[in-house]
Each structure stands twice: as C-alpha cells, then as structure tokens.
Design brief:
Structural class: alpha/beta
Number of helices: 10
Helix content: 25-40%
Number of strands: 12
Radius of gyration: 21 Å
Largest sheet: 5 strands, parallel
Strand content: 15-25%
C-alpha cells in the first residue's frame, strides 16, 4: 500500500468531446437501424476501448475499401477522408454515413473555398495522421505539410501571393502557435483562419492541464497511443515540469510511479470514455488515495447534429459508451 497519495485532482473538462460523441452514436445508430455488420473506415476514434466495444456490437473496422462487400453500409471515421476515398466509396455503391467531426469538415470547406480562389496551403500537422491525410487529400496538389518550425524554412509553395495556413485540429496549441509564427515570419502575407483550426475541446483540455499541472506531483492521462490530443496532454504536463504518463487503461498503472507523490492529477483525451477514468480512480484509491476532487473548469455544452437518415424516432437510442 502506498499511503503517500492524499488526493486525486480531476481535470475539467476531460474525456469525450462533441465530435467523438457524435461519431460513436453514428456507428451505434447505424447498427441499430441497418443491423450488423456496419463497416467503418479506420478506427472511428482513436481509443482501444471504444473500438473494441463497437466491434462487439457489430462494427468491422477496415482501412481499404476493397475489404467492404458490395451494398454494405460504411461509416467514415471522425478524422475525415480524402476526396479520393470519398469518390471510391461512392463508386463502389456503399450506403455512406460521414462521422467526420464537423470541426474537421469546417477545415475541408475552407480549403475547397480558398483553392477555388487560387490559394495554395501550408498545413501544420503530423505526417501520416488520418486527419492530415484527409485534409491534404481535399486537393490533388498545392497543400504542403509542415510538422515543426524547421520544416517551415524548407517548404516551397509554387507561389506566395495567395497562401493560406490550416492546422490539424488536435495539435498542441502552443506548438501550433510557434509554427504559425514561423510561417508568418517567412510568408508575411499568409492568410490565417478567422478562428484557429485547433478545436475547442483540444484547447480546453490543454488549458485544464496547464492549470492542474503546477498543483500536482504526477499527471496521468487516460488515452490510447494513437490519440493525438491525448499524447499532447501528456507532453504538455511534462513540459510544465510535472512527471506524466499516458495509459490506455487502469491495468497499465505502475505502483512505483506513485511513490512519494501526494497529489495526482488525472485527465483524459477527447476520445477516452469516462468509464476508463473511473477505473483509474479506483486503482489509485486502492494504492492509498484518500480523496478525489474535481477542478473548476469550463462546462462544454456543444452538441453536433447527426447525419440525415440516422434519426431513429422509432428506435430508442442505443446504449451509449460512457
């Protein structure tokens, strides 16, 4: 038993955002309405527990559309897809439901609009992340990826008169600001989005970690290794000088992390369900934590509408992963 732990401080907000809630509900409702299996291109959201729960209900996760049988129902993940994937899905005749987060769709719409006006783009994001592939795949050319400040020095758009910057929605707010500043320094006329592309939920969870980190001896982030926004939370706490670890589930907690630590900060990425947070709390209580206190924080009330064709007036909403 470790009696050093006196308190667990819960970040607010943490866990599911509106885009994740909506994406999961789209898959659940599609299964309820059309029956299993429902095919989902890529992990619906980057969380192992959520994906396994949906698999158990009848979702089949695929990367290649050739793995989906003709006439099947297909859901695009919350991260969005390229125009080529969208077109291939239509050509194959699937019934399609798009679970792309509306805040990612907003970036896609902006890219399409400015491309018509002759703009090229610099995209700040992580190479290989499905959201980046989806956004860059809105155009056949003219969109250039930068991952860090060093990349900004070597990026070479064909022209600089009409240049716009867009951002992956789940980045570190501070990193993105630093890279955007480097883009502005090199291309002073660059057009920036009216509202920054980083989503409200990513921003709010990072802000909460900034407030929480100085108050605790250790930060635990609940999130899966593939989750960009969860990784950023762990990095942020570490950067602020607080030891931090990311866990996919309570089983990954190591007792030695807690030795000599009195106050534990706990948060969860935007794709991590609250059930996992509760399991981590139980485990930390078992290690000796006396109390759990919730921080004051922003209450998120945003909710995104479901796509047409999934309003189940005659079917009760499916059991939700919470």
């Amino acid at each position: 038993m470790n009696s050093d732990i006196s308190e667990v401080l819960l970040a607010e907000p943490r866990g599911f955002c509106a885009g994740v809630d909506r994406a999961i509900e789209i898959v659940e409702r599609a299964i309820a309405k059309f029956g299993a299996p429902i095919y989902v291109r890529h992990e619906i959201v980057h969380n192992t527990y959520v994906v396994n729960e949906l698999k158990a209900k009848g979702a089949i996760f695929i990367e290649e559309l050739s793995d989906v049988p003709p006439g099947a129902t297909l859901v695009f993940s919350a991260h969005g897809v390229s125009k080529a994937v969208e077109q291939e899905a239509r050509d194959r005749g699937f019934e399609i439901f798009d679970a792309t987060c509306p805040l990612v769709t907003k970036v896609h719409v902006e890219v399409a609009k400015l491309a018509k006006e002759g703009y090229e783009f610099i995209m700040i994001g992580h190479k290989g992340h499905p959201e980046v592939e989806g956004t860059m795949g809105q155009l056949s050319s003219g969109i250039h990826l930068v991952e860090d400040v060093a990349d900004v020095a070597t990026v070479s758009p064909l022209q600089t008169d009409k240049l716009a910057v867009v951002t992956q929605t789940t980045l570190s707010v501070d990193d993105a600001a630093e890279i955007a500043a480097a883009v502005r320094a090199r291309f002073p006329n660059v057009r920036e989005p009216k509202q920054q592309d980083i989503c409200y939920a990513t921003q709010n969870r990072q802000d909460a970690v900034k407030i929480m980190s100085p108050q605790v001896d250790l930060v635990i982030v609940v999130g899966s290794p593939t989750s960009s926004n969860s990784n950023r939370l762990r990095e942020l706490a570490q950067r602020l000088g607080t030891e931090s670890y990311m866990v996919d589930s309570a089983d990954e907690l190591k007792p030695e992390w807690f030795e000599g630590k009195a106050r534990i900060g706990l948060t969860a990425g935007a794709s991590a369900p609250e059930v996992l947070v509760r399991e981590v709390i139980d485990r930390v209580r078992a290690l000796g934590a006396v109390s759990v206190r919730k921080m004051d924080g922003i209450e998120e009330t945003i909710k995104f509408p479901l796509p047409k064709g999934l309003k189940l007036d005659d079917i009760p909403p499916p059991g939700h992963i919470s």
